[in-house]
Prior knowledge:
It contains five helices and no strands. By secondary structure, the chain is mainly α.
Amino acid sequence: MERLLENLMYSARWILAPIYLGLSLALAALAVKFFQELFHLLPHLLETAEADLILVVLSLVDMALVGGLLVMVMISGYENFVSQLDIDDGKEKLSWLGKMDSGSLKMKVAASIVAISSIHLLKVFMNAQNIPNDKLMWYVIIHLTFVVSSFGMGLLDRLGRDGKAI
């Protein structure tokens, strides 16, 4: 009975596979929005103000960072929790493939969230004259919360990796 239960629980990891496949669909949706934003910009490029252009470019960078985050979570999560990817020897292989455990994935996600939040905060600051001060304060507080959380997670990860007591 115990063996059956253990095999069932171990096989249940495959429930995650469609979730990671769903992330690839989310990546495709993000790519559509990226190019939609780009195609809206191009016809009006010469008449677009510099500040507006910078805001659009920051949005594109933001989407690229989210896309990279999706790829990391999708591929590393699949490899860590479902099954190793079998990439043919002749095919191009990502340098981090097979090297990112759940701890390092967590740190990459935290760093990506801080980067995305930084870009969002920069976009907010570029439009600061139209945003109430109390809202600006909350944007900064939320961003600093991400920064402090990421720093704390990194510190705990390093202490745990070095074998020091916390």
